Amino acid sequence: MILEQAVLTITPGSEGEFEAAIDQAKEVIAKAHGFRSLKLLRGLEQPSTYLLLNEWETLQDHMVGFRESELFLRWRELIGPYFALPPVVEHFGAAVVTRAGGG
């Protein structure tokens, strides 16, 4: 499982419209191969900043399967007009934690 983290800075005053657009866009991303889930969190100190967390089966499902598809174009068409800045996107996978002493 891969977790995509996107920090989205939205044009102030358009947060309600952005949230409505995400509601539509989640139906688009849900059709992508390897997509698992979407969670959107709104900043408390900076209410025009959102944290988008998407789960994918693999990194390739996101970066190739979705990002290079017509679904991505539609996704971006719905939510892109509300971006004040380009999204900052990172991916995370499971970490292997080793304990000292074998325990």
3D architecture notes:
This protein is an alpha+beta fold and 103 residues long. It has one domain: Alpha-Beta Plaits (2-Layer Sandwich), CATH 3.30.70. It has helices at residues 15-29, 59-66, 70-79, and strands at residues 2-9, 35-42, 49-56, 88-92. A hairpin with a 6-residue loop joins strand 2 (35-42) and strand 3. The longest helix is centred in the N-terminal third of the chain and has 15 residues, at 15-29. The two termini are 25 Å apart. The model has no long low-confidence stretch (mean pLDDT 95).
What's a quick, concise take on this entry?
The protein is of the alpha+beta class.
What are the main properties of this structure?
103 residues, alpha+beta, Alpha-Beta Plaits, 3 helices
Architecture blueprint of SSEs:
Layout: E1 2-9, H1 15-29, E2 35-42, E3 49-56, H2 59-66, H3 70-79, E4 88-92
Helix pairs in contact: 1-3
